[in-house]
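hi! just following up on the protien thing from before. the input was this:
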Amino acid sequence: MPTDFAILLQDRPGELAKIGQALGEAGVNVLGFCATTSGGEGAVHLLVDDAETARRALESLGIVPAAEREMVVLDVEDSPGKLGQIAADVAERGGNIELAYTVVGGTRLAIGADDLGAVGS
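and the predicted 3d structure came back as:
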């Protein structure tokens, strides 16, 4: 199952590159990611296809993820209102979306929720 790693970094050149290179050298495919910075720190979410190998690659850099969670990846139609529809469907099933971002290479959405069964497919 795709897994999201939340990683906290210093906001300086090369930090994301270092992580991406280590994951690539370990053979881990990054399916999606998002990154933000504020106050000299960066927060990165990485969606990977092999959690165990990714964890080892990060640990080799001295990085311990701040959080780790399984995610559901949905193929979605690229149209106005689709995000609202998906979020409403999850809520109607009793789930609460806690993390969501688009996946690299198409119209797919990665969702982390308190109840992954509520996300559906």
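The chain has a mean pLDDT of 91.
The CA atoms of residues 11 and 40 lie 5 Å apart.
cheers
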